[in-house]
Amino acid sequence: MPEVPIPKEKWSGKITEVPLSSDISVGGERGMPFLSYEGLGRRQLVAGEVIDDPEIADFCKENPVDQAKAWINECGVDLICLKLLSTDPERKNTSPEDAAKTAKEVIDAVDVPVIVYGCGNEEKDPKVLEAVSNLCSSERLIIGQANENTYKSISAAATANGHGIVAFSNLDINLAKQMNILLNDFGVKLDNVIMDPLMAGLGMGLEYSYSVNERIRIAALMNDRMLQPAMICDSTGAWDAREATDDNPLWGDADERGMWWEVATALAALMSGADIVIVRNKNSAKIVYDAIRDLRGE
Amino acid sequence: MPTAIEIFKFLPKSNCGKCGFPTCLAFAMQLANQKVKLSACPFVSDEAKAALESSSAPPIRLVSVGTGDKKIELGEETELYRHEKKFFHPTCYALTIQDTLSETEIDSKLNEFSKLEFERVGQILRLDMIAIEDKSGNSETFSSVCNYTASKTDLPLVLISSDDQSMKAAASLISSKKPLLHAANKNNLDKMINVAKETKCPLVLKESDLSELAAMVEKAKAAGVEDLMLDLETSSLQQVVEKNTIVRKNAVKKTFRGLGYPIITDARNVKDPVQTAMVSTMKYGGIVLLEDLKPSQALPLFVLRQNIFTDPQVPIQVKSGIYPVNNPTEGSPLLFTTNFSLTYFTVLGDIEKSKIPAWLLVVDTEGLSVMTAFSAGKLTPEKVAKSLEDVDAKTKCGNSPVIMPGMLSRMSGKLQELSGMNVVVGPRESSGIPKILKNL
Ligand code: SF4
Predict the structure, then answer these.
(1) CA dihedral for B424, B428, B434, B436, sign (positive or negative)
(2) How many of the other CB atoms lie within 10 Å of CB of B217?
(3) Is the CB of B21 under 6 A from ligand 1?
(4) Most Cβ neighbours (<10 Å): which of B36, B178, B410, B439?
(5) Alpha helix ranges (H) inside B338-392
(6) pTM value?
(7) Cα of B33 from ligand 1 centre, angstroms
(8) Looking at the DSSP assignment, which residues form a beta bridge with residue B95?
(9) How many pairs of residues across A and B have Cβ atoms under 8 Å apart?
């Protein structure tokens, strides 16, 4: 009988392991996603999205602490991603001090690791994240997103307080690498960095992200140190697609469709190399969590 | 294609010149470059012919199911990752009809299935195939349901039965429609191969152990049945990823040639059919068999397939022209952007977020993004002014301004002059659009 070989690739590099708390880490893969014969690494994690102020987001109703608790109690998510969107000068312009207090409350309320994001405004984010990092200096925390214009103050605060950072780049393997080089040159240890190469939602450029992620993973496995940090992908961009949420009798139930839209985005992120996926909907979180287990043969 | 030296080994080396070339080696070189046909040499042995044909065969055989313009083709893939070139044949989805259903029930199922059709960025996304399952265990019932269904749809069919008699009866009736036979297993292998041979229909070989499966492929090929697909009996997402990868990678990297056929994933009885279909779509699945799909599942699944099978060298372009967003009226502001789909979707999303009625003008930049198009001279003030005129922007906007991408600020003066409209420089990042619209 013919013997079918297992075409295991002899990669020389591996994804860096990043500790998120004293007992949870991500990364460590020695092969392409979910190939157990190449080396699975740590389990991929699901992060539940929490918005700091329900008044600015029509998809959440509770205060951030209750949102975080609901994620833990109803879904058992691995971690929380708190987005301090209200700090945006174009929204409520919440002060860095108040935002930091919110972050502290959320962190104190849950016993899973927390990632804290700013609002994406390049002038405000460094101030907000610095305040968060300083106020929560006794906790292990990941803050982000740092980009080429904001990384200095964000990573200085993170390094001083023993926090990790999320490095953001705009859908391009070279920019992702450049961002990590900047951080490395600035003295940030790359085993404290998680990279976010921008996950485009389903139907909105998902294929670009899918290929950028795959290329990053391949380069990392070929031992490009500057592309070896673990990867985080935000699947909540899926909800921006009008096909995900519009009411249209021909497209079926909108709630269910939105859920699958987010699941498809998260699965594409995972299949192309994500170590952490951020999700918005509790049902999609459960499906993605189960899919990760199933993909790993657990 | 084999190299000239590989071909040369099989030639008589008599340099007789009958092929039109002075030497066998010269002929071999022409053949390697696909300039001539092997048949030009009258002295090649059958054995040599077979050997050369198989080594010049694509690593994954092209297999088609069905007839007419809904016919599907799978195989001839050459890549492991889409960025290396592209994935050629999109995954096909088949939904199931049980042969225990009445004709009215079948009609209504087919009607439901036909609703799974959506138009998106100029492409039609729809269901590809219908599977008919032998649940009755009765050969006559199965045949007549297959025959009935075949008369009601022009989609390619998959016939599902493990009984060779039932399969033979049904396949013979509708063999002109070239249905896919699912499936031969270890126990019925010889008989199913015969059915496929007699009906000239493509055949699925089903076996979870890949080495066993390769042995089954050899048997089928020896019997002259080559239009094969492989059901790897995957029962978890992990198995889908791993087994599909082993089969695909061995084929395209030529580390093992015996499994170079399209893969069919049977997701009818798994606990998470939609997730299985999504993973199989991303990881080399040719056909995915499903019990059913709701529109709310089908649309995201089909869009995922559309995304993954997009040619990475050819960005999806949006049709140029004017798009109403949030129900604009005459006098609403107008924003313009490029026809690169990613740019378009981002800008569209941000205008929608603002909830402010506006016109979105998409200028044809051959799929380039704003900055690239500008640098390449594909987004000039002249071109934008012309597009504005083509869509009669003056009437549409009334006294409202034209908002231009912030990155193009240096052409604002010229555009204002050419168009005769009030031009406002917008934000550099699309995310700033809601703010500028609110502050108009
Ligand atoms: S016809 Fe055949 S044998 Fe004769 S020279 Fe050509 S290749 Fe050689």
Answers:
(1) negative
(2) 22
(3) yes
(4) B178
(5) 341-354, 370-375, 381-390
(6) 0.89
(7) 16
(8) B130, B290
(9) 167
Structural tokens at position A111: 């016993």
Instruction: Give the CATH superfamily of B4-56.
Output: Electron transport complex subunit B, putative Fe-S cluster (1.10.15.40)
Distance, in Å, from the CA atom of A163 to the CA atom of B318, rounded to the nearest integer, reads 43
Q: Which pair of structure tokens corresponds to residue A236?
A: 């909540």
Tell me which residue of A295, A283, A238, A263 sits closest to A77, measured CA to CA: A283
Give the closest residue (by CA) to ligand 1 atom 7.
B24
Q: Which domains does chain A possess?
A: 43-295 (3.20.20.20)
Instruction: Encode B23-44 in three state secondary structure.
Output: CHHHHHHHHHCCCCCHHHCCCC
Tens digit of pLDDT for each residue in B326-377?
999 999 999 999 998 888 988 998 898 888 999 999 999 988 888 888 888 8
Q: Which residues pair with B265 in a beta bridge?
A: B288
> Nearest Cβ partner of A211 from B83, B115, B301?
B83
Structure tokens belonging to residue B89 = 């044949």
Pair A129, A143: CB distance under 8 Å: yes
Q: Is the CB of A64 inside 8 Å of chain B's CB atoms?
A: no
Helix, strand, coil percent values for chain B (each to nearest 5): 45, 15, 40
Q: What CATH number labels B63-308? A: 3.20.20.20
Instruction: Tell which residue, A191, A186, A200, A185, has the closest CA to residue A165.
Output: A191
Contacts (Cβ under 8 Å, ≥6 apart) of A229? A15, A16, A18, A27, A167, A180, A190, A191, A193, A194, A195
Tokens of A293: 């287990």
Domain ranges of chain B: 4-56, 63-308, 321-438
Joined together, the tokens standing for residue B20 give 């039109």
Instruction: State phi, psi for B342 to the nearest 5 degrees.
Output: -65, -45
pLDDT tens digits for range A103-117 = 999 999 999 999 999
B50: pLDDT strictly greater than 90: no
Does B348 contact ligand 1 (Cβ within 6 A)?
Answer: no
CB < 8 Å to A290, chain B: 272
CATH 3.40.50.11600 fits B321-438, yes or no: yes
Beta strand extents in B44-173 (DSSP E only): 63-65, 72-74, 92-98, 117-120, 123-126, 129-133, 157-160
What is the structure's pLDDT at B1? 61
Q: Which residue of B has its CA nearest to A9?
A: B249
A188: nearest Cα among A16, A12, A27: A16
